[in-house]
Amino acid sequence: MQNEKLKPNAIDASELSFNEFKSIVINDYKIAYESRQASVLGRREVLTGKAKFGIFGDGKEVPQVAMAKAFKNGDWRSGYYRDQTFAFAAGISTIKEFFAQLYANPTEGADPFSGGRQMNCHFATKSINKDGSWNDLTQIKNVSSDISPTGGQMARLVGLAYASKLFRNNKELDYLKNFSVNGNEVAFGTIGNASTSEGVFFEAINAAGVLQVPMAISIWDDAYGISVPAKYQTTKEDISEVLKGFQRDAKNPGYEIYKVKGWDYPALCEVYEKGINVCREEHVPVLIHVTELTQPQGHSTSGSHERYKSKDRLKWESEHDCILKMREWMLESAIVSEEELVELEKEAKVFVRNAQKEAWNEFLDSMKPEQKLVVDYITAMAKNQPELAKISSQLASTADAQRREIFVAARKAIRLSTSQHSPERDELLNWYKNQDEINYDRYNSKLHTNGSDSPDKITVLNAVFDEFSKMVDGREVLNACFDENFARDPRLVAFGEDLGNIGDVNQGFAGLQAKYGELRVTDTGIREMTIMGQGIGLAMRGLKPIAEIQYLDYLIFALNVLSDDLASLSYRTKGIQKAPVIIRTRGHRLEGVWHSGSPISMLLGSLRGLHLCVPRNMTQAAGMYNTLFRADEPAVVIECLNGYRLKEKLPNNIGEFTVPLGYAEVLEEGTDITVVSYGSTLRIVQEAAEELAVFGISLEIIDPQTLLPFDINNVCSASLKKTNKLLVVDEDVPGGASAYILQQILENQNGYFHLDGQPKTLSSKAHRPPFGSDGDYFSKPSVDDVVETIYKMMHDANPSKFPSLF
């Protein structure tokens, strides 16, 4: 580890004139000082009620200016919500945009990072156009969209850095000129010292060290995590001391680790220049531990740090404020005079104040026409209904009315005037209805990319079979599918536990590492969070990753990454970023607590923004993969664990046929009852149908194929028109995925109106299945359970024809 103790004039100015050097230093100070004023003013705006909440980068300004000097076009940042000074210094954000985000302004272009959807200091750059096509990422300084969960940025950081390794070492990717220049791009990460206590941090640090990728992680260390000091956070109270074992040496690869004081401007500049050069040129991960930082305004606008810091600590912080120390150094080095600094600081305060006022006024001005319209409409209606006058008067007198207040007034007026029809009311009602689409775009759009390559735009090609089509194991169907697609598209890569050398535990990738090389088919360690992050980062850089989780049960270890980051990416950036990673896993119908694999409701509740594919066999899975390989939206594909050795017919066009997402399929037509199921329980239902036929009971069996989206053509409700009875069978917990399916059919598809009896669900027990075949039988739906449940439903409808079994 290099503990940097550099002399005060450590900036190499040998090729600069004094005036040039002076200009650079003064500009850096100006950026830092303006950023501090933005923090001070931003906090005030929250405390006066103009903004909901604020969190700022005060105390971290000088190291972020130094970091920005090393950040080049094509590089990527995956950081956290203290990096505003970096964003200003790198030209990624203006101060006006910073305030527009603080006010959550959804007006087009006001908050270019999230369209008003994220709180301040959550930055992102435009990776894609409105149609989903990629920009030239080598020509811009890239920022992957920030998320609030501390440490959450670490998983994707691994993938962003790993992409540079693939671009440098896989010459088949040289044609992707808009994504990389010989893998020279560095992935910059930032994190607070307290968040280094999280598991995802250690997982990411280890993964990057193993992979040897150009990842440069900066740790902003102000010795606290909200109110909790370092002695409760970190062994030895020093994360770089803890991580010394990762330092590379002459025999073993590892990290370059630097330690530098956050108030030492010249030392910071030298460390970042030196460290990032090593990272960029040698593809060695770098850790820069920036110590002795302060947080002058405390953690956030939710409280004051005077409550938990001692007087001595507060005194030390005031003396070691990085801006104050930089100011002292500039004066001591005769770079600038006191008078020049006073004038600069005065101008900076005015500049920031003007930017804040402009952002606030633009935010209000965007809503004033709506406010005036609603006031006018309600005032006109009040001629016939005096009680409405109070509503219009109150709205008119609200000087800083926001859209919520405008719509509360409009909706209340509409409700109160329900029995008083008038032309004025019709005008208000028409205006209100027309705002639905506009507000949907402002606040609800872009859950998915919905671009020209979205899954619903992929050409549907049916699987082709003939008399020569072979019957093979299901795993061989998948293997052939992956083989053909890897030969077709060099962007495809796959990685996961046991995926490479042995071809995954069920042999779907057997022989493919030998054929396509370790860069494309790769083993990983046991690290589910960063396997997902690896996929997200690669996908954000234009590659087509398959990130494998060995069993569906293990996906829980990575659910935070998928839910917080991947699922919300398109939405939280309002469609300026995408990450079309495919998460491949397997579940259902094995045995035991940890390999029973059906926590579907957990996925449905946390992964809106992804497609959730639940193929019943490997042919359907292959068709879904073929669709996803050609599309540009993320998905989870859950293969059936007990289907790999079942025989299936191998399609002649195994790498080309596609299964459209969201289209349910009627597997067996029937007349008495509609049974909806998916995955492995479909075979259970089909077996039960044979026995029920003996009783004269005819089942219509429907496979939704995907749960997100679900049956977009309303196949289920169409079936109910015929059968009038509904049973949902699945392996999730009671009231889990089956409840979701009922809501989709009965509410969204209006299936309720076709029922002549109570709809039923048949699911697993509330606990996970115990080990063994007996445990499986008594815990998950069996053929007996399906037969008896359906028979009971028929008995309830017609007891004379179907006498009670028990």
TrEMBL record:
The chain positions of domain Transketolase-like pyrimidine-binding read: 472-646
What cofactor is needed? thiamine diphosphate
- Could you confirm whether the keyword Coiled coil appears in this record? no
The alphabetical list of record keywords is:
Oxidoreductase, Thiamine pyrophosphate
List the SMART domains hit by this protein, alphabetically: Transket_pyr (SM00861)
Task: Tell me which domain of life the UniProt entry assigns to the organism this sequence originates from.
Answer: Bacteria
Note one Pfam family from the annotation. Transket_pyr
Q: Which Gene3D superfamilies match?
A: 3.40.50.920, 3.40.50.970
Documented EC number(s): 1.2.4.4
Q: What does this protein do?
A: E1 component of the 2-oxoglutarate dehydrogenase (OGDH) complex which catalyzes the decarboxylation of 2-oxoglutarate, the first step in the conversion of 2-oxoglutarate to succinyl-CoA and CO(2).
What protein is this chain from?
3-methyl-2-oxobutanoate dehydrogenase (2-methylpropanoyl-transferring)
